[in-house]
Amino acid sequence: MGTKILGTGVYLPKEVLTNEDLEKLVDTSDEWITTRTGIKERRIARRESVVEMATKASRDALSDAGVKPEELDLIILATLTPQMRFPSTACLLQAQLGAGRVYAFDVSAACSGFLYALDVADSFIKSGKANRVLVVGAERLSEAVDWSDRSTCVLFGDGAGAVVVGKSRDGSDILASRMYSDGSLKELLYADACGYIRMKGRELFKHAVRSMDEVCREVLSLAGVKPEEVDLVIPHQANVRIINALAEKLGIPKEKVFVNIERYGNTSAASIPIALHEAVREGKLKRGDLVLLTAMGGGLTWGAMLLRF
Ligand code: UT7
């Protein structure tokens, strides 16, 4: 019995912050941001809390999956911007959804958080401990950004994405996955004492390309799948140059790599579920396709997962 993604959902705040808007805030330019990162605009949650965004994305995913909140056995929420120190954002989401006294917890793995959470969900499904799991990535990064630091404030955006996973009887499955961490590299990307994101961008860039390339190869080899057999790659959206370098190293053509960073920037744990949802809606990801997900972020953490959608 496999693990199937039964439905996907997103919530993106309405307010758009463009590169031109940022030119008025810090010493930057649309030209620099576009050529160095691929980002044109990002969403900002002025009014929405991280729980509100997670709730809307979750309702969207539950309705797409045809699953009622009370049918869930487990909620796993990945975020680096939790609403409170405790209770967990997953517990706050449980209450908003009216999901019953469900098992609920947060995963803290920065930009790899959604992949970590989906991997845990897969283990619960395969072990028989859960039948229906809600996996959410939700971030309000605008509150973790130092708006006077041009090296980071142009990169991030807010949003939430969710999937509902359950038992598969039709060949859909999570075929292979590998997750890693290396805390000795924590200085490359972390939140300072004020909670602001700090990064050593150039070094991180190299680690991102190398680690995602290695883990993608490992996962493909575990599943006995060649890069050319992959129908779609959905990478974490941190920088379009990282994505292009990764695709080139893997020998996967750009047309098979999903990119939406130009509209949302880096939404950390929300980036993969938002991209997954859009790939399905745009007809780029169809049932039966082989899709490779990969992410890298603060920790450092990184991982990859191959699924038959
Ligand atoms: O999500 C987790 C994973 N995240 C990542 O992996 C991010 C990885 N890193 C990156 O994506 C890139 O390193 C950045 C986009 C963060 C930076 O791009 P870069 O090409 O590595 O630029 P840089 O940091 O080497 O800076 C180049 C120049 C510097 O000026 P000097 O020293 O050459 O005079 C910066 O001060 O660009 C300057 N700069 C800017 N200029 C205009 C840095 N930020 C800006 C800015 N606008 N916003």
Q: What is the count of structural domains?
A: 2
Proportion of residues in β-strands: 25-35%
Q: Structural class, from helix and strand content? A: alpha/beta
Mean pLDDT over the full residue set: 98
CATH-assigned fold name of the largest domain: Peroxisomal Thiolase, Chain A, domain 1
What is the element string, with H for helices and E for strands? EEHHEHEHEHEHEEEEHEHHHEE
Low-confidence stretches: none
Number of helices, where a helix is a run of at least 4 consecutive DSSP H or I residues? 10
Largest sheet: 5 strands, mixed
Provide the CATH top-level class of the largest domain: Alpha Beta
Give the distance, in angstroms, between the N- and C-terminal Cα atoms: 14 Å
What key attributes describe this structure?
13 strands, 2 domains, single chain, 309 residues, globular, binds oxa(dethia)-CoA, alpha/beta
